[in-house]
Structure formats: C-alpha cells, structure tokens
Amino acid sequence: MLGLLCGIVGFVLLPALCEEQAPFRHSSSSLTARTLTGERSVDLNRITTVRLLTTFSYGGAYRALVVRDARGVRLGITTERSRRKLRRAIEKADAHAARGVPAPRVSRAARAHLGLAPGRGLVVHTLLSFLLLTMSVSLYVAVVLRLGGQ
Fold first, then answer.
1. Facing residues of 52 across strands?
2. Is the peptide bond preceding residue 118 cis, with omega within 30 degrees of 0?
3. How far apart, in whole angstroms, are the C-alpha atoms of residue 96 and residue 6?
4. Which of 25, 67, 115, 148 is the most buried if burial means most Cβ atoms within 10 Å?
5. Do the Cβ atoms of 34 and 27 come closer than 8 Å?
6. What confidence tier does 129 reach under pLDDT thresholds 50, 70, 90?
7. Closest CA to 35 of 73, 92, 85, 84
8. Torsional sign, CA 91, 92, 96, 101
9. Which position has the higher pLDDT, 123 or 15?
10. CA-based nearest residue to 108, from 123, 96, 93, 87
11. Quick check: helix, strand or coil at residue 121?
C-alpha cells in the first residue's frame, strides 16, 4: 500500500522539482532558473531532448516543456519568454541538422506546443494524458477499496 502511494506521489512530484520559478535569467545560449531543488542552467546549444508534460487541475490543463541538455541538466519551462528562446534554439538546431549535426529529439506534442508543427499532436497528447490520469486514479481507488475490505 505504501509503495503504491509513494509511486503515485513520486510520479506527480518529480517533474515539479525541475520547473522554473522566478527569478530566471536568459542569455543567448542558456536558460537559468530557480527550481525547488536549486538553480539550474540548460545549455540551449546542446539540447538532447524536449518533451511536453501535461497535468490537469481545476483550471484546466497545465503544460510544461521538459528540456534536457548534453550535461543531463533538466529544466521544466513554463513561461512564454522561455518558450520563445527554446523555439529559436530548436529551429537553429534543425537548421544545423540539415548539415549533418545531430538534432535534439523533440516530441510531436512539444513541437505542436511550441508552434513548430500542426496542433494534432497536442490534441492526441492531451487526450492520452487525461486517459492515463483517469485510469491511474481509478486503479488507485479500486486498490484502496480492495485492501480496505470493501
């Protein structure tokens, strides 16, 4: 029971540990922001992966772009200014990829959220995220009721 609860809490809490919070700094080649675990700086010239994390609350869908660079530093981008910087960095990396330099892996949903691809990837991602959340909460309630003797 404790393991199941810890697994669900960890799944929800771990992505929040790397999300940017004010104050943050931008330079031409990096994004630096405070997170719950301290200050993190992502090198925009050495991005390896970008993925979209979608969660839900009473106000609707909440989206954060999780960026990882070659050093393994992860930063969850939530502000419009940071998204614009990331979009320019991905466009620049895509241009370099045409010349043989390896491009970062960017999910379809992240590309759609940044406006670099059609929005269909974002719709599919949101639906799958909602279904996963609904199924996991339903499974959790069923396990708790089963273990409680109901």
1. 65
2. no
3. 43
4. 67
5. no
6. confident
7. 73
8. negative
9. 123
10. 123
11. helix
CB 20 within 8 A of CB 42: no
Q: How far is residue 54 CA from its own chain's centroid?
A: 7
Give 38-58 pLDDT, tens digit per residue.
Answer: 788 888 888 999 999 888 877
54 phi/psi in degrees, rounded to 5 = -115, 125
Q: Which of 43, 61, 60, 64 is nearest to 52 (CA)?
A: 64
Q: Write the single-letter amino acid at 41.
A: S
**DSSP H helical ranges for 51-119:** 80-97, 108-114
What does pTM read for this prediction? 0.77
Query: How far lies 27's CA from each of 3, 49, 84, in Å?
Result: 42, 20, 12
Q: Between β-strands 105-106 and 47-57, what pairing exists: parallel, antiparallel or unpaired?
A: parallel
Per-residue pLDDT, averaged over 15-25, amounts to: 60
How would you label 138-149 residue by residue, b for 16+ Cβ within 10 Å and e otherwise? eeeeeeeeeeee
Tokens for 28, please give them: 């031409």
Write down the mean pLDDT value for the chain: 81
Q: Please list, in sequence order, all residues whose beta carbon lies within 8 angstroms of the beta carbon of residue 103, skipping any fewer than 6 positions away.
A: 93, 94, 96, 97
Cβ-contact 51, 63 below 8 angstroms: no
